[in-house]
Write a structure and sequence with these properties.
By secondary structure, the chain is of the alpha/beta class. It folds into 2 domains: 33 residues; 85 residues, 2-Layer Sandwich (Nucleotidyltransferase, domain 5), CATH 3.30.420.270. 40% of the residues lie in helices and 19% in strands. It starts with a helix and ends with a strand. One of its GO terms (cellular component) is plasma membrane. GO terms for molecular function: transmembrane transporter activity. InterPro entries: ExbD.
Length: 134
Amino acid sequence: MRRNRQVVAEDEAQIDLTPMLDVVFIMLIFFIVTATFIKEAGVEVNRPEASTAQPKDNVNILVAINATNEIWMDKRRIDERAVRANIERLHAENPKGAVVIQADNKSNTETVAAVLDAAREAGVYDVSLATDKK
């Protein structure tokens, strides 16, 4: 009889960690789901400077134009004719998102204008040009 009481007492003294692990996993899932991930265009550009530069919220479509007028989206080089289709696809994923064009200092104005036109033809009118603060 005395031996049974010792076994029962040892069982009751152990701490059950299962609820704590459940809470930790739920918090981990919550932070992963709610985290915002920075999208990159896929190429480094030297942006022009502007004294009126302001941070832009709710950006989900980045289009980069490098010094040789190559257009990059989602870390891949795309043809000028495919810009509109790619913007339409990304805009369908997040309709409230905006387009930011990251043009290099040495890029051609004609290429920037073509990307701007493609964004507007895709139905996105919130288009900005990325600059560095002076």
